[in-house]
Amino acid sequence: MRDYVATFHTHLSALMTDRNLKGAGVQARMMPVFRKLSSSCGTCVVYAAPGPCLERMDEDVEAVYEITGDEEYRLLYQNE
Hints:
- By secondary structure, the protein is an alpha+beta fold.
- The chain has one domain: Alpha-Beta Plaits, CATH 3.30.70.
- Helices cover 16% and strands 45% of the residues.
- It has one helix at residues 11-23; strands spanning 2-8, 27-32, 43-49, 61-69, 72-78.
- Strands 2-3-1-4-5 form a five-stranded antiparallel sheet, with helices on one face.
- Strand 4 (61-69) and strand 5 form a beta hairpin.
- The longest helix has 13 residues, at 11-23.
């Protein structure tokens, strides 16, 4: 399992993604976004999964990062 964080343009998108991930059996939680990553809607979803689960992201996802260390992130996907 790896740890990921997804950021969003809207709070609703974060909520929908949290539900999608949990519905697929992925351990996920919504929380305030890390300032280092984004300031869009202020909410992110942190989750642990074997892969980034991009197919479970709501269409308004901003970016998905793999958490590589303490306050270290690797960008995996960015929605433009």
